[in-house]
Write a structure and sequence with these properties.
Blueprint lengths: L1 H35 L2 H12 L16 E4 L7 H5 L17 E5 L2 E11 L2 E9 L2 H8 L1
Antiparallel strand pairs: 1-2, 2-3, 3-4
Helix pairs in contact: 1-2
C-alpha cells in the first residue's frame, strides 16, 4: 500500500502545482485574457513542455495488475452447481490442446500453453493479441 499512497501523494502534488500555475497565469493575464482561453490549456502547455518526445511510462511501471490464465468455462444452472461434489467432472467449452487465454485485469492480451519449470506451472505465450484487437475489445 505504500506505493499506492506515494502515487496518490504525487498525483495530488501535481494537481495542486497545476492549479497554482493556472491561478498565476490568471493573475498575470487578467480576466479578459482568461475568458479567451481555457485554464486547462495552460496546464496542457506546461505538461507538454515537461514531457519528452515519447511517452514516459515510468509512472505506471509499478502499478500492480492481475494476470489470469483461463482454461475454459461452462454455463450451468444453479441446481447443477449445487449438486457438484468431490470427484465430479465439469465439461469446459475448450478442446484439449487448445491454447489458454491470458488475461490482464480481465482483458485478453495473449494465448499460450502450460509448461512446467522446476515443479512450478508457467505459460509459454504462443500468440500476442494485437494492440488494435485489444482496443476493439474494450468498446
Amino acid at each position: 500500500m505504500d506505493k499506492q499512497d506515494e502515487l496518490r501523494r504525487q498525483r495530488q502534488a501535481l494537481k495542486e502545482e497545476m492549479e497554482a500555475g493556472d491561478h498565476k497565469d490568471l493573475e498575470r493575464s487578467g480576466s479578459a485574457a482568461f475568458s479567451a482561453r481555457s485554464p486547462v490549456g495552460g496546464a496542457e502547455n506546461r505538461l507538454s513542455e515537461r514531457l519528452p518526445s515519447g511517452p514516459d511510462l515510468s509512472m505506471v511501471m509499478d502499478i500492480p495488475v492481475r494476470l489470469t490464465l483461463e482454461v475454459g468455462g461452462s454455463d450451468m444452472p444453479i441446481r447443477d452447481l449445487l449438486q457438484l461434489h468431490q470427484g465430479a467432472i465439469v465439461e469446459l467449452d475448450r478442446q484439449a490442446g487448445e491454447p489458454l487465454d491470458v488475461l490482464v485485469n480481465g482483458t485478453l492480451i495473449a494465448r499460450g500453453e502450460v509448461v512446467v519449470i522446476e515443479d512450478k506451472l508457467g505459460i509459454r505465450l504462443t500468440e500476442v493479441v494485437s494492440q488494435a484487437d485489444r482496443l476493439q475489445s474494450l468498446s
